[in-house]
């Protein structure tokens, strides 16, 4: 019988967190999550301003991955994401990039039917499900689940979805993986501060990628390698993603820096993942014909 992991959550990635489950390499597991508000916004009368001390982004875990140690790389195959029947979007004064236009808090409950999100009686839009928060325990001090970094965390990258593979560097024995903050839909930038926040169940297969040195999260799609970097400044995040892309190109093709720099400019695409978390997250997309993981 396949293991289902649920019911216990953390609000920071930390080596001090005690595992709630143990998973063998190669095992397929189901992980149940709750929405980023912890299920507190149940109706449209429930406002985010009613919960001034609310902890956000509960992440199911941590999960101890057997036979994994510092310096290893997790290979996380996202096999399936199943969503609850309704999500929630909250707006509030100061929330997102145009929060100064919002005068009062509002909650909208959005039903999910036939892979469509129902905004109102006249507008629907397709589901594009994704994992907002997924990461491992960092090397040093604890990092809140609201914050992205080299450990993963709140990357809010819409390519972290079913059918793709996420690679994470490991900093602690057992990795201490945790995840949550699913979205039924979210555009690049997460511009108002939320996606369609929702609970659900994620099916993962967790492996160890051998003979790879990794310093930051990477997503592999059918066509591209996506290098994910987060920083307090946009330009810094882009520069760091470029440096990692150049490192991978140099390693694979024995290029001098200038030629790898040329290739990044000729074939690399920068995408914004999110602009609203404590650190900005970007991803550098490189075709798999040029670079592999």
Question: What does the model show?
Answer:
This protein has 293 residues and is mainly beta. It has two domains: 3-219, Acetamidase/Formamidase-like domains (Jelly Rolls, Sandwich); 220-287, Acetamidase/Formamidase-like domains (Endonuclease I-creI, Roll). The protein contains two helices and 23 strands. The chain has a nine-stranded mixed β-sheet. Strands 2, 4, 6, 12, 14, 15, 17 and 18 form an eight-stranded mixed β-sheet that branches. A hairpin with a 5-residue loop joins strand 22 (269-274) and strand 23. The chain is globular, with a radius of gyration of 19 Å. The model has no long low-confidence stretch (mean pLDDT 97). This is Acetamidase. InterPro entries: FmdA_AmdA. One of its GO terms (molecular function) is hydrolase activity, acting on carbon-nitrogen (but not peptide) bonds, in linear amides.
Low-confidence stretches: none
CATH superfamily of the largest domain: Acetamidase/Formamidase-like domains
Mean pLDDT: 97
N-C termini distance? 32 Å
CATH topology of the largest domain: Jelly Rolls
Specify the CATH architecture of the largest domain.
Answer: Sandwich
How many strands appear in the DSSP assignment? 23
Which CATH C-level class of the largest domain is it? Mainly Beta
Percent of residues in beta strands? Answer: 35-45%
């Amino acid at each position: 019988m396949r293991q289902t992991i649920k019911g216990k959550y953390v609000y920071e990635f930390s080596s001090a967190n005690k595992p709630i489950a143990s998973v063998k390499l190669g095992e397929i597991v189901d992980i149940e999550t709750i929405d980023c508000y912890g299920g507190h916004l149940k109706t449209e009368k429930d406002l985010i301003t009613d919960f001034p001390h609310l902890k956000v982004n509960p992440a199911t875990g941590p999960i101890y991955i057997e036979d994994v140690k510092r310096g290893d790389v997790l290979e996380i195959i996202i096999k399936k994401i199943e969503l609850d029947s309704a999500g929630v979007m909250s707006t509030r004064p100061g929330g997102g990039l145009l929060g100064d236009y919002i005068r009062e808090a509002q909650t909208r409950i959005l039903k999910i039917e036939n892979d469509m999100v129902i905004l109102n009686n006249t507008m629907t839009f397709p589901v594009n499900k994704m994992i907002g928060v997924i990461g491992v325990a960092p090397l040093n001090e604890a990092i809140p689940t609201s914050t992205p970094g080299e450990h993963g965390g709140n990357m809010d990258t819409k390519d972290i979805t079913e059918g793709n593979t996420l690679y994470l560097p490991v900093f602690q024995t057992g990795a201490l993986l945790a995840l949550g903050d699913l979205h039924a839909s979210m555009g690049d930038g997460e511009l108002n501060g939320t996606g369609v926040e929702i609970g659900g169940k994620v099916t993962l297969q967790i492996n160890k990628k051998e003979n790879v040195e990794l310093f930051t999260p990477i997503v592999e799609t059918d066509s591209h390698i996506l290098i994910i970097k987060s920083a307090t400044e946009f330009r810094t995040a882009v520069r760091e993603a470029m440096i990692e892309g150049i490192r991978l190109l140099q390693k694979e093709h024995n290029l001098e820096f200038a030629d790898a720099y040329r290739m990044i400019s000729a074939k690399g695409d920068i995408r914004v993942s999110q602009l609203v978390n404590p650190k900005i997250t970007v991803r550098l997309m490189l075709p798999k014909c040029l670079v592999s993981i």
